[in-house]
Amino acid sequence: MSKLGSNINSGLGVELGSMTTATRNAGVSTATGTVIYNTTTNAIESYGTEGWKTVKTLLDSGISATGGTIAEYVDSGIYYRSHTFVTSGTFAVTQVPDSFGGTVDVLLIGGGGGGGGGQISNEAGGGGGAGGFRTLPAISVTAQNYPIVIGAGGAGGYYPTAIASDGTASSALGYSASGGGGGATYNPEVGRPGGSGGGGQDSTSNPGGTGNSGGYSPSEGNPGGTGNTNSGGGGGGAGTAGTPAGPGTGGTGGDGLTNSYQTGSNQTYAGGGGGGGYPGPGGAGGPGGGGRGAADNGNPSTEATSGMGGTGSGGGGGNAPNGPLVGGGGGPGLCVIRYKIGQNESSGTAKATGGTITFSGGNAIHTFFQSGTFAITDATLTSVKAFVLGGGGGGGNSNGGGGGAGAIQYRTSFPVNPSPGSYPITVGSGGGGSAPFPGPAAVPFAHGANGSSSIFSTITAAGGGGGGANASTGPNNGNPGGSGGGGCDGGTGGTGSGAPGGTNDSAAPTNGWGNDGAGAPGRPDAGGGGGGASANGGAPPGPQIGGAGGNGLSYSISGTSVAYAGGGGGGGRSPTSTTTSSTGGTGGGGIGMRGIDQPVDMHGEAFKGAGGGGGGSWSPATGGGGNGGTGVVIISYPV
User: Fold this and answer.
1) What is the pTM of this model?
2) CB neighbours of 82 closer than 8 A, spacing ≥ 6?
3) CB atoms < 10 A from the CB of 215, how many?
4) Which residues, other chains included, contact 440 with Cβ-Cβ below 8 Å and sequence gap of 6+?
5) Residue 194 pLDDT more than 60?
6) Which three-class secondary structure state does DSSP give residue 386?
7) Are 531 and 515 in contact (CB under 8 A)?
């Protein structure tokens, strides 16, 4: 290698010789002190006794870190990398260069509060308050592991056995966001405080819970709405307070707030749950994922719904007395951490917008954790891989059947049209688990609710069927769905609308993959497992022991192999710890309860379309079923 000389260019500076790494390494007897500009690494390098060393990198470098779902995007000409946590995990920082000051921006949302339950006679529940919503810019980090805790959504209330639960707090990097307050469930009839407060119930003298329970500035939330005659106020949202109930009509949940940290485009989070109505309609959930309040007509299409997972939204209030009295569960919280990166560090360029965009194996991957729009920006994109998964069904109560998983739809070459190129995405919510049976014989047992469908273009993945409840007539049969819910108390399992025979990473038929829930013939003391994407639910193996949930299927469209759509396990009546809880199917299926306990993981896993576990029972206590898991839509294409 020749010795490099200096070249003074009109007094503007020294021009170094430039070459690639390959050319540099081909040099012979390089002189100590030689300095070059390496065009491969974009760095000034010098040769010494220990070989070539970097003097200065001439490109901006961002933080190096792992954890959560990682996405990259450009916002106002600045390149960002984001880490989205929808479940607890670790943000592991391995390197902090000085290009951008070593800081991150954080969005932190607590779990939403559960919707209040309706009273047996005539009082509907208040909507659940959203979890606390906090934006924390320019937080300094160092090279270490930071635990991330994602707050759980509160359970819906059910008179008279359980008031609605508050959501739990989320935390990251030394900061916290409070859980949302539960909606009012008869006695007390006032909403609970939280990040945003739950709605009140039954009277204008019964206020909603207060917001900003963490005492932060700026405020993390707003109060719930006041109740009114027989109806519940809306839960508070991050943006506005919950709306007061009208006479007989539920109040609307408070609005959420928008933030762009996750994808570079504004998304709305932390809406309040709508209040239940009696005898009129329930209140709508607040924008940002708030659950709908129930109307008192016994129609499953107007039951209370849960807050959307990954938004920290409140659950809708339950109704009274002609339908399921249980309130919707609160949505789990969220943490998004973003930081600037250099343009050279970007993994690729997407050909569309929408969802959380990641890159793996030469592909761009759009993951929709909530409903949105897939919009093509590059006219060369005419075909995609598409994975569409419906929400899981909820488990039944009192040694009830497990919820069925949502159907899986997968296309390996699905045509898309760049003109107009805009496709609405619907992500199905999980069905609510049937509430604990309150005891009076006049109150019927109830199925777990079916999950709702997920939709992309012409592809629809049906939600899973709800599990049956302990009763001598209709409610003991599992509901049909993408995969069917399990039956109990001698009832039959629900039929799966999806086709059997699916294998891992296999393209699905027109109706998707799904299987039947198991019945419980001759078993008045146990429930059958909900169907999964690859197998039927299991029948109760013996007295007082619930059947296992059917297994799901694994797909690698996200860049790694992930199991989805497991069925929920059936509940059992066993009062002793000598028997085991029934297992949920692989792919996030919830565990079935025994009579003596309620496993904390009986809910179907969020964003896996998994069925909730069935509730156990043992006189005089009876248990509710687990909620079904939220669905997901994933779209992938080469870059």
Assistant:
1) 0.75
2) 70, 71, 72, 73, 261, 262, 263, 336, 337, 338, 356
3) 8
4) 120
5) yes
6) strand
7) yes
pLDDT for residue 168 is more than 50: yes
Locate 143 and state its tokens: 């090279």
Q: How confident is the model at residue 38 (pLDDT cuts 50, 70, 90)?
A: confident
CA atoms in the 13 A half-sphere facing the CB of 570: 49
Contacts of 312 (CB under 8 A, 6+ apart): 109, 110, 111, 112, 130, 131, 132, 133, 151, 153, 167, 170, 177, 180, 195, 269, 270, 289, 330, 331, 332, 333, 334
Q: Residues for the chain: how many in total? A: 639
Pairing of strands 408-415, 459-461: unpaired
pLDDT tens profile 507-517: 999 999 999 99
> Residue 233: CB partners within 8 Å, gap ≥ 6?
126, 127, 184, 191, 199, 200, 201, 208, 224, 225, 226, 227, 242, 243, 244, 245, 250, 251, 275
State the DSSP string of 273-286.
PPPP-SSSPPPPPP
Beta bridge partners of 357: 366
Rg of the chain in Å (alpha carbons): 27
Helix/strand/coil (H/E/C) assignment for every residue in 121-132: CCCCCCCCCCCC
Q: Which residue type occupies 199? A: G
The residues, any chain, with a CB within 8 Å of residue 573's CB and separated by 6 or more, are: 399, 525, 526, 544, 595, 616, 617, 618
Structure tokens at 530: 């909900």
Look up residue 483 and give its amino acid: S
Task: Answer whether residue 616 shows pLDDT above 70.
Answer: no
Nearest-10 Cα torsion for 255, 259, 265, 271: -30
